[in-house]
Amino acid sequence: MAFSVTLKNPYGPCTIKELLEEHLLIPRKIRHFLRSKNHVWLNGQPVHWQNQAEPGDILYLQFDEEDYPSKNMIMGDKNKVNCLYEDEHLIIVNKDEGMKTHGNEPGEIALLNHVSAYTGQTCYVVHRLDKETSGVLIFAKNPFILPILNRLLEEKRIARRYLALAQGEFPSDNCIYREKIGRDRHDRRKRLVDRKNGQTAVTKVKRLNQYKQACLLDCSLETGRTHQIRVHLAYHGHALIGDPLYSTVAHSRLMLHAYQISFRHPLTLETITAEAESDSFKTAAALFASAN
Q1: Cα separation of 182 and 219, whole Å?
Q2: Is the pLDDT of residue 240 over 70?
Q3: Is 255's pLDDT higher than 80?
Q4: Percent of the chain with pLDDT over 90
Q5: Which residues fall within 8 angstroms of residue 105, CB to CB, at 6 or more apart?
Q6: What whole-number distance in Å separates Cα of residue 6 and Cα of residue 41?
Q7: pLDDT grade, residue 233 (50/70/90)?
Q8: How far apart are CA 60 and CA 127, in angstroms?
Q9: What is the largest CA-CA distance in the chain?
Q10: φ/ψ (deg, to 5) at 212
Q11: Distance separating the N- and C-terminal Cα atoms of the chain
């Protein structure tokens, strides 16, 4: 994939080597290509690796096909994309419930394919939402920005908030669940609390409204384990309404919606906040509220 990147250095004074390696997380192999081909310019001039870059300097990077080989992508339907934010490096969209983030089988069409059609280029998954969950998702528009966004996730610098409609009476205004989560050996689709062998999982929960048979919750993640909110709430007796795996209360949809995502853009240091609503979630929650 041949493409170029131009950015205004938002970081403190540093060498070109530090900028590419420590701030932009460019892999060693790619840095080698950039250096050997003289494909790095600072303020319009070729640079040496130890040249100093100051805040506000304009950095230009040229990537060739051998740097990032093209990845074939079946284009989906651009009309199925609800775009919330877009720049030359990333796009944030609102996913409908019932749609996969990405396909698992060759030729399978999912949101990733639709987003690629919308942008006119192959995009890359940064994080995922379960098929049954609606809400905000980030996709990378080139392989240069992907590891940078991945590191923001790993370092918990991308804040994600969810609305959840759960069963029962919630016991407090705020709580934090810290039970480790692992795979269910008896059902490959499911996860469960596994205090011994599971992965660390931290979910913060705030009660917004208490209804007769359900509670409306605001959940935020410090980790991103598969089914994390669903497993933690079910384990504590508050399975999500309509959850096909962990609940006995049926509904037309899983009552979980990722309504907000916020992070500091790694190339501009601007704070990006994207919010999305779900009509189906709002309608269902209103029905529970009216029955209170």
Answers
A1: 20
A2: yes
A3: yes
A4: 85
A5: none
A6: 10
A7: very high
A8: 28
A9: 69
A10: -65, -45
A11: 56
Q: Report the candidate in 10, 35, 36, 34 with the shortest Cα–Cα distance to residue 23.
A: 10
Rounded to whole angstroms, the Cα distance separating 286 from 270 reads: 35
Quick one: average pLDDT of 204-215?
94
pLDDT digits (tens, 9 = 90+) for 3-22: 999 999 999 999 999 999 99
**DSSP string for residues in 208-256:** EEE-SSEEEEEEEESS--TTHHHHHHHHTT-PBTT-TTT-SS--SS-SE
Give dist(CA 88, CA 5) in Å, integer. 9
Distance of alpha carbon 146 from alpha carbon 149, whole angstroms: 5
Closest CA to 50 of 11, 22, 15: 15
Tokens encoding 107: 């030729």
* 148 closest CA partner among 56, 11, 39, 52: 11
Average pLDDT of 67-90?
94
CA distances from 258 to 76, 97, 216, 244 (A): 23, 11, 13, 18
Catalytic positions are 130
Position 208 pLDDT exceeds 80:
yes
Residue 148 to residue 206: CA distance in whole angstroms: 30
Predicted confidence at residue 258, as pLDDT, reads 98
Residues 6+ apart with CB under 8 A from 45: none
State residue 108 phi and psi, 5-degree precision. -75, 130
Q: Residue 292: which pLDDT band, with cuts at 50, 70 and 90?
A: low
